[in-house]
Amino acid sequence: MISEFSLKNKFLITFIILFFLILGIYYLFKIPIDAIPDISENQVIITVKYEGQDPQTIDEQISYPIVSKLLSVPKVKTIRAISMNNVAFIYVIFNENVDLYWARGRVLEYLSGFKFPEGVSFQIGADASAISWIFQYVLVSNKHTIDELTSFNEFFLKPYLQSIEGVSEVGTIGGFLKEYQIDLNPYLMKVYDISFEDVLNAIKNNNQSTGGRYIEISERFYNIRGYGYVKSLEDIENISVKNSNGKSLKIKDIAIVQLGTSLREGALDFNGKGESVGGIIISRIGENSYNVIKRVKEKIKHLNLPDGMEIKIAYDRSHLIEESIKTLIISIIKESLIIAFMILIFLFSIRSSISIILMLPISIIISFIFLKIFNITLNIMSLGGFILSLGVLIDMGVVLVENSHKYIEEGYDKLLAIKKSANELSKSLFFSLLIITVSFLPIFFLSGEEEKLFRPLAWTKTLSMLISSVLSITFVIILIYIFLPNKVKKEMENPINKFLIKTYEPTFKFIYKFPIVFIIIFFIISISSFFLYRSLKTEFLPPFNEGSILYMPSTVSGISLSKGFEVLKYMDSIIISNSNVKSVFGKIGRANTSTDPAPFSMIETTIELKDPNKIYEVIDDLSNKLKIKGFINTFGMPIRTRIDMLKTGIRTPIGIKVYGNEPFKTESLAIEIEKILKSMKETKYVYAERNSNSYYIYIIPNRIKLAQYGINVSEIMEIINFAIGGNPITYSIEGRERYPIRMRILRDFREIDFLKNMPIRTSSGFVLLKEICDIEIRRGFDMIRNENGFITNYIYLHTYEDYLRYIQKAKSLIDSFVKFENGYFYEFSGQYEDIKRFQISLTFIIPITILIIFFLLYLNFNSFLKSLFVLFLLPFPLFGSFLILKILNYNLSVAVWVGIIALLGISVEIIVVKIKFLDLGFEKFNDKYNAIHWAVVRRIRPITITTLTAFFSLIPIMFEFSLGADILKRIVAPMIGGIFFTFILVLYIIPSFYIMLYNFRKTKQEVAV
To answer: Of 163, 520, 839, 932, which residue is most buried, by most CB within 10 angstroms?
Structure first.
């Protein structure tokens, strides 16, 4: 026997355990920590710049061809592209287990053979994930202008922070970047016979630098350098455009040269105070977020800022990490204390209790070795695995110690008592722990986001249980031998045990007389569990309080950045007025990073709270206050929302994607669907994207007229690009700083009528623009989405009802009233896809769990009927799980099912121990009454200890309201309800079945006689 081997080799086994403990403590400080596991998709971002082009042109010439080509890349799951003015963002989403750097290499390989139009540049975006936005800051100063703050942020602070280990990118946002502006007067140009091309070439030719080799002078060599960059307004003003009659015509003769601000793609407000400058720290994928933030804050601390300038933190993920880890550690401590207290009051022996309680820290500390080996971070989920396992880690120790107490009470020597207990119970207890451990293995068969989220929990629970199982047949025996006293108090001398036995004794007599009553109750409750289950709503994952709010109102597309910023500032001033709001980081448009493909009209406001536990109160308050016409409120959490946006593109829990080939048609279909869904009372709100609200001035060359005047289309396009559109021509290099230089016709001439009458020089003189081009205003897109080659339009949804039931009703209505032509279709997206995928997973996860449990039961009992009997009993504790979910108004989710799977293992363990005691009872006694009485009444203490320690150890989580507790409550709640009903099962139902079975056999034998 292993137990006897352990007792003979106490010092060797103790030495091995001590070695593993030291190693575990060492690795504990090496394991990275984070709030949650990285559950985001594997993404490769491609940023393609095509200056001067509208979204439709970019979609047709860039996005669609690239998406079509990349769809053939191995292991690609989906590709989404967003085409906007001047730029396209293409997101290539790979399968879960693909190495990111392999994926980046394959994308580059495919792009290298792609023929881009002239003037296009592309780059692979940051090696980051959806949860990489870990830190946000704002630059404030009472001595510097916004322009100065912008320049400092862009050219000094950004590279300074980007050099920090673990930082992938720093996305700057807000402020105004200085720009040299040349505002041309087209009529003066006509007077001096100057073309736009003349000015363009003059600027390009007068902003250059070059270098030669070297020359030798007086035995020394001197490097040659020509420096012709413009450094001031005067340099630009004095650029010669043309010589006429010996007189040089300069730019200042035909234009106003001034400093201005370049066109921007986003703006930032901080605390409702107006224009601000800030940045977003984006961590590299796979990095320890907490350590990266520590390094960032340390670097900022030692930064020598200009006088009056200050960096304020607007979002700091480390608070979430610290609070969530602290919550879990406190819960583990509370759980351990409860377990220790329960053991102490039932055993009434400090020494005996120590031998059991020591199993908790030993199992957990040794687990850290394997966490490091398997590269698992310490986070809410991995620590949650320890919380789930603590209550059952000590079960074998409890039963062995309690059984040893019994034998010592009967006069046995301590060593003999331990050996007899081990011989009687070790096998059943080992298999019980193994069942708890192995029954959780199906969690590893999950896929997608749920697999990434719950795998750390499954690892820690499984590892700690496996370690506990091994220790239970090796080291626990040694601990019991060391700490178990030679003399113990009798069970009836303990007032709690005495009360327990005396209270239960009359109940047992009733069970013995009327077992059929409890069997009927069993069947009623077991059958009711099915109906209770059917009444529960479903969701993918429960809410997770991150302690911060991400406010993303749906806005009408086409709104100007300046008008949108006014609204943003007004919203932020309302938000900051809430007494629980600490700071408001309001962004409209996009930050300067590939991880932010937001259009001009998108508002994202990060709200930091003074008391994170009041987050839902704040959301309710702001929902009532932020009622602005044309804006639909959407509140979420920063990490969760960004994960959803990357995974499906949809920023609400569920949504609809309308696919087709023509953007106006897909938008029209989306608006039709929106109207239908608005009519459903189950719809909380619905909003179809309207991306065609932008207006474009179309300047269409008349080729016949161009031919008459000898003008090429490219010349007209160049005028549109630079003289009308104002795209940068070149850059002024000022040390580390680079500022754009652009030319454009004066603002007074940018009205439609003036544009039509703008003079254009030709080889035969000047003509008006309207004479060679058609000029008209058309409605167009500010953004076009493309998913897997199809034009896509999104519809955002919030519902009052369960998602699956809502979607069934909605699909029926849409299919009845919306006509889709060939090539056009729709699909629901968001958590709906996750729920469906998980439900498919459940169809094999639950059967696999049951089969594993049955196999181990058979190995333990060596009886098909007994193994089947245990499975037959399981609907009873499931009723308790579903009942508590109903009472607490919790939906069925992945977290809940994880708790249910954990419960099945615990319930089976308790049932197995109970059946083992009943079998021992029939071995000890020949008559039915004494056998069952001994197993049920006299052995109530070990069953009570194991059940109640598992039950009460989980209770503290339900009263925890700190960060990270929400998701664990959903796991723990069904376990608490199920364990309670398991306790009823082993006290009342199983004895009733044994009594009935014994009576049936006896009757059968009498009939046979």
So the answer is: 932
Name the amino acid, one letter, at 108: L
pLDDT at residue number 311? 94
**Minimal CA–CA distance to 475: which of 1004, 17, 1008?**
17
Residue 883 has pLDDT above 90, yes or no: yes
Residue partners of 55: CB distance under 8 A and separation at least 6? 83, 84, 85, 780, 781, 782, 783, 784
Q: Kind and range of the H or E element at 857? A: helix 831-861
Tens of pLDDT along 803-839? 888 888 999 999 999 999 999 999 998 877 778 888 8
Phi-psi region of 798 (alpha: psi -120 to 50; beta: other; left: phi over 0): beta
Which carries the bigger pLDDT value, residue 398 or residue 747?
747
Domains of the chain: 42-128 (3.30.70.1430), 178-208+218-261+695-780 (3.30.2090.10), 348-488 (1.20.1640.10), 495-535+863-1009 (1.20.1640.10)
Judge contact between 317 and 136, C-beta under 8 A: no
The residue-averaged pLDDT of 955-975 equals 85
Q: What is the secondary structure of 442-487 as a DSSP string? A: GGGG--HHHHHHHHHHHHHHHHHHHHHHHHHTTHHHHHHHHHS-SS
Helices in 473-560 by DSSP H: which ranges? Answer: 475-483, 495-513, 515-534
**Do the Cβ atoms of 512 and 932 come closer than 8 Å?**
yes
| Stretch (H or E) spanning 882 | helix 875-888
Q: Give per-residue pLDDT as tens, 163-200.
A: 999 999 999 998 888 899 999 999 999 999 999 999 99
Contact 638, 316 (CB under 8 A): no
Q: Which amino acid belongs to residue 235?
A: D
SS3 531: helix
Q: Give the amino acid at 868.
A: L
pLDDT level of residue 380 (50, 70, 90 thresholds): confident
Provide the 8-state DSSP code for 938.
I
Helix (H) or strand (E) holding 215: strand 208-217
Q: Is 757 helix (H, G, I), strand (E, B) or coil?
A: coil
Q: What is the pLDDT of residues 513-554, one digit of tens each?
A: 888 999 999 999 999 999 999 888 888 888 788 889 999 987
* Nearby residues of 852 by Cβ (< 8 Å), 6 or more positions away: 438, 439, 441, 442
